[in-house]
Amino acid sequence: MKAFSKITILAAAAAFLCSCEMEYYKEELYRKEIFIVSGENNILGQEFEYGEKGFQGELAIYACGTTGLDQNVTVKLGLDFEAIGEYNKRNFDTKFEEYAMELPAEYYTIDPMSVEMEAGSCSASLPINVRVDELLPDQTYFIPLRIESVSSCMPSATKNFVLFEIQRRNDYATTKSSTYYTMTGTTQTGWIVDNIFGSNTRRQAINSSKLVIPVGERSVRILPGATAANDKVTTRNNSLRVTVDPESWVNVPVYVEGEITDEVVPMQRVFITPYLDSQDAIRVSASPLNDSTYDPATGTFYLYYRYQLATESGNTWHEVRETMTRSQY
């Protein structure tokens, strides 16, 4: 009898515990938790094209669980003024030149700063209008957002904030990932008198995998020839702005084994200017012998120019002829 009683009690206890676990599991399964969709380090990047009026992106807000919401939910968001500082400190410590910046308020609009999640749904989107013109091409920009309140349910403890990264793109390059072009060409150092280039040195072959960064709707930034720079200031001072004019076409003759043929290929005209308007900026002039062009059919730039770095004195110039073809898309 005693043994039977013990077995009965143990069975009842086990059933009770099992029932509690099932109820807990059921509660966990159906509990609604509101979170912001993001990736590693709570970063979500989106690409924006160039244009005066800007373009719209979206931030996705989700409710976890196996069923939709049983009532309407209002999610209010606000700027998180500490998130970028924590990100910079954690990833770059004292490398201040690598620090990300908060996107200035004049470059974006979020109105309203809240989303309404309807009953039966599990997601909603927050529209964000962003203008990327005039942003520094080698700078990382974030809009730091955090869930401030939820009318019902609970905000996620880990996915309740996001660093919304502003990536830029045009037809030629993107900042979502590094855009490289395969470059081949020649360079020669000499002088310029009355716009005529002279030299007592031989022309040298150059080639490199060249980083190309978007800086406008029709413009990219490059370093001249096969040159390199070690810091952002030097890079900006020594960079060229390459601008494609899609309305201006040039018929470029076709050469076969060095001999000109009767064939021509229509290409878009390209203009090359210093990236910065500064006394510390590179000086550049177009070659009077060849038009710089872009072939949209092959994604290839044909560039002809002379340049002089601000750090170079006298009448020392470098004449460059280079062909750049995009390596990947």
TrEMBL record:
PROSITE patterns: PROKAR_LIPOPROTEIN (PS51257)
InterPro entries tied to this protein: BT_3044-like_C (IPR025371), BT_3987-like_N (IPR013728)
Organism: Alistipes onderdonkii
Protein name as it appears in the record: DUF4361 domain-containing protein
Residues of the BT-3044-like C-terminal domain: 162-325
Residue ranges occupied by any BT-3987-like N-terminal domain in the UniProt entry: 30-152
